[in-house]
Amino acid sequence: MGKGSGLDEMLEKKGVKVDKVLNFAIDDAILEERITGRWIHPSSGRTYHTKFAPPKVPGSDDVTGEPLIQRKDDTAAVLKSRLEAFHKQTEPVIDYYSKKGIVANLHAEKAPKEVTTEVQKGLQ
């Protein structure tokens, strides 16, 4: 039994039917750029991104000047492993629901407002 059909069976027992699947599609290289560029000021939680929201001084918090850190799971090696697991687990489910004609593929690399618009269209 496939993952999608197993999910359908489990949900049907609870009286739930899947009638739409939103697939947020994005190239792995774009995800890598977004995730590996994240930096955090640990004590305040302020976040930075080397490309999209860089600190004034690389590696230092804008307010305190203290060093920024990168989370262990925001590294390229960890991300690669996570993406491999993600694709292995989700592709069979997306394939299953695509064959049923209920998948809306959304372009997740777009700006948040554009993705929101795509979500709204996908749910119609």
From TrEMBL:
<dbReference type="GO" id="GO:0004017">
    <property type="term" value="F:AMP kinase activity"/>
</dbReference>
<dbReference type="Pfam" id="PF05191">
    <property type="entry name" value="ADK_lid"/>
</dbReference>
<dbReference type="InterPro" id="IPR036193">
    <property type="entry name" value="ADK_active_lid_dom_sf"/>
</dbReference>
<dbReference type="GO" id="GO:0005524">
    <property type="term" value="F:ATP binding"/>
</dbReference>
<dbReference type="InterPro" id="IPR007862">
    <property type="entry name" value="Adenylate_kinase_lid-dom"/>
</dbReference>
<dbReference type="InterPro" id="IPR027417">
    <property type="entry name" value="P-loop_NTPase"/>
</dbReference>
<comment type="similarity">
    <text>Belongs to the adenylate kinase family.</text>
</comment>
<dbReference type="Pfam" id="PF00406">
    <property type="entry name" value="ADK"/>
</dbReference>
<dbReference type="InterPro" id="IPR000850">
    <property type="entry name" value="Adenylat/UMP-CMP_kin"/>
</dbReference>
<feature type="domain" description="Adenylate kinase active site lid">
    <location>
        <begin position="38"/>
        <end position="73"/>
    </location>
</feature>
<keyword id="KW-0418">Kinase</keyword>
<keyword id="KW-0547">Nucleotide-binding</keyword>
<protein>
    <recommendedName>
        <fullName>adenylate kinase</fullName>
        <ecNumber>2.7.4.3</ecNumber>
    </recommendedName>
</protein>
<keyword id="KW-0808">Transferase</keyword>
